[in-house]
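Here we describe the complex-level prediction in full. Unlike the single-chain runs in Section 2.1, the two entities below were treated as one system.
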Amino acid sequence: MIHDQADYAREGEDVHEPLLSEKDETTVDVREGSPLPDDLTREELTLPAPSEPEIARHYTRLSQMNWAIDSGPYPLGSCTMKYNPKFTEDVAADPNAAIHPDRSARAAQGNLELQYRLQEYLGEIGGMDAVTLQPPAGAAGEFTGIAVAKAYHEHHGNDRSEVVIPASAHGTNFATAAMAGYDVVELPSGDDGRVDVEALEAAVGDDTAALMLTNPNTVGLFERDITEIADIVHDAGGLLYYDGANLNALLGRGRPGDMGFDVMHYNVHKTFATPHGGGGPGAGPVGVVDELAEFLPSPRVREREDGSGYEPFDPDETIGKVHGFGGNWLVLVKTYAYIARLGDEGLADAAAKAVLNANYLAEQIDLDVPYGPFHHEFAATAGERDAADVAKRMLDFGVHPPTTKWPEMVPEAMLTEPTEIEGRSSLDDLAEAFNLAYADSDEALDAAPNRTAAARIDQVSAARDPKLSWQALDGE
Amino acid sequence: MSGSGGTPYAPHTDSETAAMLSAIGVDDEEALFDIPDAVAFDGEFGIEPRSEREIRAECSRIFARNDDLAEFLGRGHYGHYVPSVVDHLADRAEFLTSYTQYQPEVSQGFLQALFEYQSMLVELTGLPVANCSMYDAATALGEAATLADRVRSTSGDVVLVPDHLREGKRAVLENYCAGADLTVESYPMTDGNVDVDALADRAGDDVVMVYAENPTVRGCIEERLGAIGDLAADADALFTLGSDPVSLSVLEEPASVGADVVVGEAGALGLPTAYGMGLGLFACSDDFLRQVPGRLVGAAEDAAGDRAFTLTLQTREQHIRKERATSNICTNQAWVALRAAIHAATLGPDGLVDLANDCVREAAALADRIDEVKGAAAPVHDRHHVREFAVRVDQPAAAIAADLEAEGFAVHTIGEHLLQVCVTDLNAGRTDGLVAAFEEVI
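The structure predicted for the assembly as a whole is:
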């Protein structure tokens, strides 16, 4: 089954679907009949005013020009695109849960209970003592975790200025440390693709606030020396931060808290199958060990002492807030429902099948995989071919390609993560797409993709002369 | 399907699993894990798996423990009626289950929807650049402050915010500012509006950003926005204005009063009341194009010469620029932006203006009625209001709010003798009951 978006192209037209503004633009005189004096209002407002049937067709048509996990394989390494169980949408849509965040705790016992239960689940899964649900995405979780680490050091009178990050880490780690006001010390990868323990020893010291680490790392390798790494960082007085992007590989087999990590974030769309919605919303709960719990954002939720229900409370030394309210509530509800559906055995099986799938797929493709043994994802190399070109050609074979040209430790990397949701036949299709694209002619790769709604897009000129709105196009 | 206890969302039969293991050359799945014994987990989470039906029943039971209240609550999180078409279109799996558009050729639909969302904000703000979302109003404000820090060459480090500001929003801003060595200071309000004279006295070389809201957190419409814009410009400080797309449909266009950046809660469109979940609006002048945080969708051309859309100016972002990125944001609120765009399309400019005007009229009408209750005065500030207004009560406000809650109505307590009431199309039908409850409890 190949999903051929090019079939949707309109013969002889240079746009696939007109912009709403090209269908209709209506201007309204705002001041006529306004309850406000003229000097407080704008004069007019111009926007499209399509009818509901037109709206339904417009967005349906747009949706047909969009790849999704329900369309087919989406093996973006480190992004963990897995199937989003439909029932979680219905759980989150419960009208009784659609309440305002400022109502009293007494009147919000249901939502508080669900928050409390989810905090407990996540604490168990990560081996952490205390959890906040407030960060609205993984990167926000990183910012929260590093802010908590900073507050911890300051509370103990330690002025530390550096965060150590392996070169292979997610870009967010570096940006997070900088946003929190730290200098970044980049740690080169060892020859085996893991943290070079000697380099780490040389890098950490009195200025080290934290080491941020992903485990398994971004080429799927477990940091076998994790105990030694933790000791080195802790002996220097630093904290160990766990980037939860790759937690899917460890579910039920390893917990960051047991490995010496002090603070971690969970990526719920990666590990717990909440839909990514074309870019978000996500949620990035943060777990910490006891020593850091008093610094978590406010409020957290706990059981009332008399057991009569739940209450929000402010941790004693809280860093304050990282989201205006309690984070991405609807996403958190879906997280709870997913964890409840799988339970202990299901979660462990998800990790097992994710690792099985990655290893099976790697066996079926003709590209080299320089680093192993890997877990849920692997970085194949396109070698002499351009990984981005190979990826564009893969689109023509009915699959979404992997993450390309990253991490940089693998030349022409194709970072591939099929997740547990693909079966054997789907993995075989995916492998065939890899192999056909990899072996194809230079001309075919240059001309790809052909079966998508748009042909190859010129990113460079788009960035040179940015057109960011239909108003900007009108000016042409 | 997996054997009992496995994930229901992996398609593997036992024989397929065996064949795959054999292809890899291992005996079992455990052999694929390279986790040292010392750190391996062999305990239990204690999480019992449940069926779909059981989980739906369980969560319904839990959520039913929320009291059935008529909420007259706002202060940054607003409920408006969201038409069914928004749910049905946004819930299409092609949108909901897609990822960030890293392969634009196969993601044209979502990119175009986000481009249209950006365009809607350009119209509403009058500013030429709008990103395709931040998390919420508070984090968008935090990003505006760090933008100010990057683009203002002055040696200043002060961000000025109004005295009437949601506490949680300020707390978020403080965290963003802490990392950039910025300091947050508040300036006074007078009768619900910015005290422009006091602000003029305070604005100086040390200020990198002046923030104001329209409407304010108490629902007041600012009457001297142009003067605030002028004094920010004189101080060479960024003028950042907070608002929302419903209010912006009728209020003064931010660009016309000198706003450099507009932030706010765009989830006023598209999102139901969702326990504080939001959609961060971020728009700015094109002077800051290469310093904008977050993702931008741009029009481009494909190899066939046809118009196409793509994420653009990505060298600002963390996955390329790492510690020199304009922000660490990666996952944003794209799907919520899609919902807001669809909702705006269903309303059209007429519907948006009507909705905003209703928010003005309903607030004025309800304030008048509460004002007639002996022991209550509303609105506290002699201003025009959008959606919400403050109420002064002779008795302690918290006790009145608790009594109102017992009668089935939720309002904010914002001071010892101050309540705040928010009315929109969602609860306008319950105002008779609220007024009666006020009469009952005061």
